[in-house]
Amino acid sequence: MGAAKQTDLACISEGEGSSCVEQLAIIEAAPIVSSYNEKIRPLLDAVDKLRSLMVMEEGIQLPTIVVVGDQSSGKSSVLESLAGISLPRGQGICTRVPLIMRLQHHSSPEPEFQLEYNGKVEHTDEVNIADDIVNATNVIAGGGKGISNTPLTLLVKKNGVPDLTMVDLPGITRVPVHGQPEDIYDQIKDMIMHYIKPEESIILNVLSATVDFTTCESIRMSQSVDKAGDRTLAVVTKVDKAPEGLLEKVTADDVSIGLGYVCVRNRIGDETNEEARAISQQLFQTHPLLSKIDKSMVGIPVLAQKLVQIQASSIARNLPDIVKKINDKLSSCLLELNKMPKKLSSVSEAMTTFMQIIGSSKESLRKILVRGEFDEFPDDKRMHCTARLFEMLNQYSDQLQKCEESDPKKNFLVEEIKILEEAKGISLPNFVPRNAFLVILQGKVKGISSIPIGFVEKVWSYIEEVVMSVLMHNTENYYQLQVCTRRAGHNLITRMKERSVQWMMEIVEMENLTDYTCNPEYVSECSRLMGQQGTFIHLVLNENHSMIYVEGIGEVGVGVLRQYPQVLSQAFDLKMRMTAYWKVVLGRLVDCMALHLQLSVSKLVNQEMESEIVNELMGPNCGGGIEKMLEESPAVAIKREKLIKSIKKLRDSKEVVAKILDGVGT
Q1: How far apart are the C-alpha atoms of 652 and 81, rounded to whole Å?
Q2: Are the CB atoms for 20 and 12 separated by under 8 Å?
Q3: What is the pLDDT of residues 262-303, one digit of tens each?
Q4: Is the pTM of this model over 0.85?
Q5: CA dist., res. 10 & res. 238, Å (int)
Q6: DSSP code at position 291
Q7: From the DSSP assignment, how many helices (H) and strands (E) are in the chain?
Q8: What would the 3-class secondary structure string for 359-417 be?
Q9: Coil, helix or strand for 484?
Q10: Pure H helices in 230-272
């Protein structure tokens, strides 16, 4: 202990000299900060009220003095000196939750203390305050040595304290002690970063004079969010233990503390706060090294004055932005709430809403599936349905045209000759047997039969996707209706698809059963193709060509055909008739499908969908019918409740800041 300290202690303990007694009396009577309190109190009360309303949960940051420091840096002692109370002390982490300290100058000689946590308010007194903080902390964070992000608020109303609100955070420790989680450092770091990252936060960095500032973990953290130190104030504690070189450390500022340093000597042992202040004042006046530090940088009163001024400046600077953010957020929440569906409170309201949803869904589907309008989905090409259905029909037609059965050049006349050889009978020559034509036709129909069925399934899958998308969009705010609608839509599309598949199978079966057309194009096409018969047979039998061009068919191989001169004419006749007729068959398969598709879609939209949904809603599966619509989905109910709470919170906050602005205006 230095000589100055020894003298000071002796003066207090033994009462030697009237000047010391008078000095102590003055210190006991004088508040740390006086006149400035009256100016800052209303602003600080407003910010504290906003904090208690938890407006920060709405993304609105408040000016906050955040107290950080390495473990055993003297953080709690600084707060004790500012508040004039005793806080929990001991080994390890004393602060295990964010401790929001609200200090209020109180004109009454009787101080008031209260703790607020988990929605409770508990009154305490100066004797029991430390124990009550420990008990409240145990309730919040458990009885072990872990930490919690849930805050504990301590309100101190006491004569002479500065009007300040600070958040004290756990001291930084790298090595977990017995009973602490292995990741205690990361937990503390995350908590500190959460509080100091916002630009509105003022960082009160508590440093011990006994360590190299550049190695302090709290300095590293504050520098990571405030490189220039513009919102960082440093408090240097334990100055009496390491006075050598302290002046150089706080003037050189190797760690960029933009708001400056304040050196303090905290209360030690059983000293009263008044005794500690007197000893501190004497120390900085008489110590050979510490007395050289500028008086604007030493003592708890200086620290209190700086904090009050910095806090006032921060509140004044940020208040207009806070007001704007509250108003903007309130407008946003109100707009979002108004966009939500009206909460249904009666069966008549539910029925009206149901009919509006059905009507809206039908109109949307008429637009995109029937009329080809897509103004509701300008950027979603998948919902431009008439164009997509047209493309699918074209792809279906191309698939039929390009399949193996539709290639007339393949094994030209070979199949016809084989069938004619087997269809011979006792009859006039040069007549094409009808059964031979049917055998070839049935083989070709069988070969392509899977293509129409596949197309039907594909097109109805697409229609189901579109219909369900519209229905789910229009019922998204009514969970029970959406469940019934989804089931009704799926059941209806499944039935309609099954009907279409059955219908297409009958069409294929009809084409397979017999040959008929009244299409004049068949006659003209057949005549055109048959006009080449004489020339073709002459070239095959009398010319040594391996390939011959046939109009309407293309180049065909003829080498093998010379072996069958007796049936060549009949085979050519059969081939040309089948080629002309196959075009008719394929055209029918495409045209009929297009007409059936349009009719089915029209029935779906205009008749069957509404009936199916009503039957499903009123049926046993939905249980409760239209009344079920009165129940909101869990997601919508939670969203509505959250918005209502946010709006109330923001309106209350708006009222708080409005009163402050009115006060400033007057």
Answers
A1: 34
A2: yes
A3: 999 988 877 887 888 888 889 999 899 999 988 989 998 899
A4: no
A5: 20
A6: G
A7: 21, 11
A8: HHHHHHHHHHHHHCCCCCCCCCHHHCHHHHHHHHHHHHHHHHHHCHHHCCCCCCCHHHH
A9: helix
A10: 246-252
